[in-house]
Amino acid sequence: MKLKMLCAVACLAAFGSGLAQAQNYPNKTITMIVPFAAGGPTDTVARLVAQSMGTTLKQQIIIENVGGAGGTIGAARAAKAAPDGYTLFLHHIGQSTAPALYRKLPYDAITSFEPIGLITDVPMTVVARGNFPAKDMKELITYVKANKDKVTYAHAGLGSASHLCGMLLQTAMGVELTTVPYKGTGPAMNDLLGGQVDFMCDQTTNTTSQIKSGKIKAYGVTTKTVVPSLPNLPTLASGALPNFEVGVWHGLYAPKGTPKPVVDALANALRASLRDPNVIKRFSDLGTEPVPTNQATPEALRTHLKQQIDLWGPIIKKAGAFAD
Ligand code: ASP
Fold this sequence. Notes:
Helix content is 45%, strand content 19%. Strands 1, 2, 3, 4, 5, 6, 7, 8 and 9 form a nine-stranded mixed beta sheet that branches. It folds into two domains: 30-122 and 248-319, Bordetella uptake gene, domain 1 (D-Maltodextrin-Binding Protein, domain 2, 3-Layer(aba) Sandwich); 123-238, D-Maltodextrin-Binding Protein, domain 2 (3-Layer(aba) Sandwich), CATH 3.40.190. It has helices spanning 2-23, 41-57, 72-80, 94-101, 137-146, 161-173, 185-193, 204-213, 260-275, 277-285, 298-319, and strands spanning 30-34, 61-65, 87-92, 113-129, 152-155, 178-181, 199-203, 216-221, 247-255. Residues 36-37, 40-43, 92, 94, 155-156, 160-162, 184-186 line the site of aspartic acid. It comes from Massilia timonae CCUG 45783. Residues 1-22 form the signal peptide.
């Protein structure tokens, strides 16, 4: 009884201080952790959303790139940050695949975070260096199979979307390739442009302008339907790889314990950013679109994350790709 009373007093105090915190929130610069290198696809999404959210919240949101280990280093940093609304964490599908890929993680993908909302679901594209010999996906598969000891596949580390897509591609093609990990597909793209690596599967938010400029070759998109901004690029599923489909959903989180009124203020600002004509236009130019705003809520992200963990766990275990 006494304990219950104590909790009631402490909980009320915590709630009260949460409210007080929320009333003058935000009163200083907010940091958004992106768990990949600057200049990559997740960084691009984060910078667009952060700028627009910052306008709504009347405070600047700066991006901190904490790349490495497929997003898990940045996730660990975000999980340990003070739960005061001044550290946010933007991650993608990797938040749901890492628990199955890593035997031990220094955080829990679900319980270490407060979900804020879903943001966008970005298509991926299979792309290669400009002078890669294959002219379409069928030829790429034939070439890769015939040269599997020398072809290199670039990705952003175990747990990244490019790694996941590469794993699915290798399974679908029936080959095992030499893979080259980077801290993000931003730096991987630089090496693809320079011809140091052969091919990768990466988000349209990173590949669209390079495909359009003709500096890299594109072979297919991983969505069910063609992406309007890349109308000439066929879907993988319609050609050489029937049923091949993967999208890179993104979500925004805060560390566990961030007061609910603060989370609500952030979710409101997130929804406003997804209605921002500039964000919609830039997303569209980059081959994607915001989720419907009723998905940009803590409940929708919480449900989606759990579903995705349940979906990918068995697929990854079957593929047998683990890190220690
Ligand atoms: N989204 C990552 C990045 O921004 C790449 C990946 O997940 O493959 O670099």
